[in-house]
Specification:
Elements (H helix, E strand, L loop, with lengths): L2 H4 L3 H17 L9 E6 L2 E5 L2 H18 L9 H17 L6 H12 L7 E5 L5 H15 L4 E6 L9 H16 L9 H14 L6 E6 L24 E7 L3 H7 L7 E3 L5 H13 L7 E2 L2 E2 H6 L7 H12 L7 H7 L4 H16 L1 H13 L4 E2 H7 L10 H11 L3 E4 L6 E4 L2 H11 L5 H17 L12 H13 L3 H8 L2 H9 L3 H10 L1
Parallel strand pairs: 3-6, 3-7, 4-5, 5-6
Antiparallel strand pairs: 1-2, 8-9, 10-12, 11-12
Helix pairs in contact: 4-6, 7-8, 10-12, 12-14, 14-15, 14-18, 15-18, 15-19, 19-20
GO cellular component, one term: Cul4-RING E3 ubiquitin ligase complex
Protein name: AAA+ ATPase domain-containing protein
Keywords: Repeat, WD repeat
Length: about 525
Amino acid sequence: EHQDNFICPPEHKKLLDDLKERVRRSSTTSYSYSARWGGVVDDKPLATDLDRFRDLVTNQLKKDIDAMFPDDGEERSELDMERDLHEQFMEKRSRRFVGRRDILTDLFKFADSTSSSSPIVIHGLPGFGKSALASRFCRTYAEQRPGAFVLSHFVDASSNSSDIRFTLWRLCTELKKEYQIREEVPETYKELKQAFPRFLEQSAFGRPCVIVIDSLQQFNKDSNRAQTMEWLPSVTPVKVIVSTYTNSPSYDALRYRQPEFPFIEVGELPEADRKDLVRFALLEYRKKLEESPTNNQMRMMIRKSESCKPLWLVTACEELCLFGVYEKLSEEVKRLPAYIPTLYNYVLQRLEKDFGQEMVSNALCYIACSRVGLTEMELLHLLAPEGRDILPQAKWAQLNRGLEKFLRSVGYGESATFAFVHHEIHAAVTKRYFRVKDRAQKTHAALAAYFMVQADPLGDRSWNTDDSRAISELPYHLMESKQADELERVLCDFRFIAKKVHFGMTYELATDLFEA
């Protein structure tokens, strides 16, 4: 039944042999490997005994990566790794940026001015591309003004970036390093809030400094009350650019500051820029829309109600790239929902059809209920079918590939977590799956149970673990699942407190106790 999928027909064997020989002659590195029939699993034929193939690919990739990025043996600091994460975030967000030339011009003029001034506020509704704009400005300004120091901070670029205490510590530490500031960087939020203006003042003596802080609305809503914006000086000698959602708490706090802050609104994307973005997004997949008078698919696309939002356009283009019937492409363009919430619901329906409703909903609900995302290993355990400890890698690989456009990886290696690319996806997941009574609470309870096992593997309250994430995440999910008695027992356990302090989570522990 499946012979054609695995065995080359006799009439094609010579062509295949010729192709293999050409590959061997044209490449300095070629290998041979074998495979065996593995039967049918979930109605799909499989090959097995591919261990040699796996090892060949893994070893070659490792060899190439080591050659391109040799290990110098130096251990990287927390600051270096954090900087890399913000650089990666900036690169991804600016990759598909188009237009906004007038706003970029205004930002350049502001950054080039030499007098002290209030920070400038970029604002707009969700989906209009504020993070992409901030990313493009940072990259372009650094390229065109090589003598300037551009310090960017993208809230949600890393697991710590939404913590205002860590943010101020990072900004002050970067400024201290760049401008040789003698003052020591304090540790507590109260001291950092007082020190930040002084570090800004001292950074005025040296090369020009531009600080960009994106997505103020994403700062943690904790006891430090970052959304009040008390930590941001009203006038600074260095240039500070911040961005936030229109009508968010941080927006309202800045709107009434004196002296008045300059505001720049990111509005609808003009029609010409919409077309450029569609062409650019589809070109990555070697695809395009017809623009002929008799079949103008582009016009159908940009006449959708929320095509003025880059987020809608990019999401719609990614969906079209998965559609394989060229003759029916116009019909598919017409079917695309005109609004971001309904478009994401449409995407979720397609994902459920491709990978199963239970698998997709469980994976997305776990991520939605997490604080800063979940690691791959955590998801593999949480999504394990009944009777198994872990989800098979083959199934995870398929699901991960289906979700990759809607998730982003935060961090490095095995500690990297999967989180949503945009909060609008989180909103769509919440609306679709958390309508079921108590589902959010039950999901938090499942996460609490998982992290409890990881944090206390012996089950005797000894907390004998090296899993710092489990120690960090457990109180949050106990709180969200309304397990008040268990939360009290955990946070009042001196051995748990000692373990948390051992992992350097003293300030996080204080937050846990405050919120409990």
